[in-house]
Design goal:
mainly alpha; 4 domains; two-stranded antiparallel ribbon; 15 helices; binds zinc ion
Length: 313
Amino acid sequence: MALRSKSKYPLVGLQQPDEFMDRLRRGFSLRSVLSGKWTPDGLRVRGIGSLHGFASHCKAFPSWGAEATRLVEINLITANRRKGARKRNLTHCKRGHELSGTNLGIKASGQRWCKACNHGLQKIGSVMKPEQIARVHKAIENGLTVGQITQTRGARRLIVTFKALKRYRIENPSFDRFLIENARVRLSRSQLMLFRIVPSNAEHFRLDLAQEDVPPFEMQAGDFEWILSLLKQKRVPFEARYDVAQDIIVSLLSRAISRENLANRIMDFTSEHYRRNPGLGYGTVKQPDSLDAPIYDDADVSRGDRAHRGLWD
Ligand SMILES: [Zn+2]
């Protein structure tokens, strides 16, 4: 029977109505009959017909249409139940861990996840992509902090997770040095060093170790005065300035640090100086000053005396 229509679009009907009905009887959803995807047995087949053709065929053959519509409704329910079955029935994660017992996590959404994989990833962090590395470089040069790079705040998305950045710093000591040297805020630089993410035996933060990327240093007239002025500017105590200045010149000559980076590293030289000479500084939590030490060289009064008098007299 030829299909006719008075509407603008001619009725097209279905080329294979029997195959269409057969699929519906086998539990295919309407979508899967048309596309051949998401079939009940999971096997991809060639799709047949079109939605428009199906509608017009139902119109032209009402009894066929009634049966087909009934099956479409039933099959839709079973098809929806089938959704996600493949993942739901996985017994192992993609790395081979068993998805059961204490290793199986279930999210509020019902999604299942592998705890072994998650813990592993959290521990080591993922590998940074080249474009992430480039963006992090740019961000550091523009004065962004590690917090701003690794956290989403307001409209700005994070560039990389803290764990991934940590892994990259451990694996690339020269990058870690770049990060510490270019930290704009002194506090954040000291925190970077304090919460040292890199292994304690890493040698990249030595002030006396030649670096490949640092050009040879040529001493010029006025350099010593320039260094002293930097020390004064950074409020390094007068009595320490000449010692620190000498350390700086040694570092410059041995190519441990470049002329351009010096201003950013003054505090590192100063803290290194006080670390080597604990009696001179104000002490640290790890290395408190002795209360028996004189308050200044050649003084009769000890720190203990002064603290005591200051508190009780
Ligand atoms: Zn796993």
